[in-house]
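Email to the structure team, subject: SMI1 / KNR4 family model.

Hi all, the expression group asked for a predicted structure before they design truncation constructs. Nothing fancy, just the tokens so they can compare against earlier work. One-line instruction: predict SMI1 / KNR4 family, return tokens.
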Amino acid sequence: MRTTYFANLLQYLPQEEQQQLQQAFGASEAQIQALLEVFPNCPQALVELLQDVNGTYYCQHGQETICVLVLGSDLGDYPYYLKSVEQIVKDYHDKRETIYERYQEFLAYVEVDEKINMHVPLNERLCFADCMNNGGTSSLYIDFTPNEAGQVGQVVRYVHDPDSFEVIAASFEDYLQQLIEGDYEFTAIYEEEFE
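Reply from the structure team: attached below.
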């Protein structure tokens, strides 16, 4: 593991998940180029993570398929998978509606952080992580077109039922630092499996 984030994460994971990550391949230059064509402002810290491990949600790495929860959010010990470059690019081509269009008459029941522009298509935000049930409950985005109160590159957490979109970090780098300083709290799910 080249990145500090992944190198430190290993000590919090069970043996099997450690081995999966150590067998994983990073994204190639061509894959990173494909990502940057769609998201030219992709943070270098995310590029480096993907160069280390190109996705952890049922991603093919040589002969192995890996499935390891490697990210968290402000939801405490709730874990997420890192999407591969291919999954990120596919999302870009799929999700074109805005938050406003998605909810329209139900907007009164949806919490949207004032830092988020609800009129920007969802695919213009880089969705880099889905939660443990494949994003059905929560996903994480890098937002490049915030409202005036927000910052370019802020990290947004979507959660379902009740639906909300919340800024959880000013940048991707800040987001990773929060996870490190929180001692990778989301890895608690692996401890629960063995109790």
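The first helix runs from residue 4 to 9. The chain has one domain: 4-193. Ping us if the truncation boundaries need rechecking.
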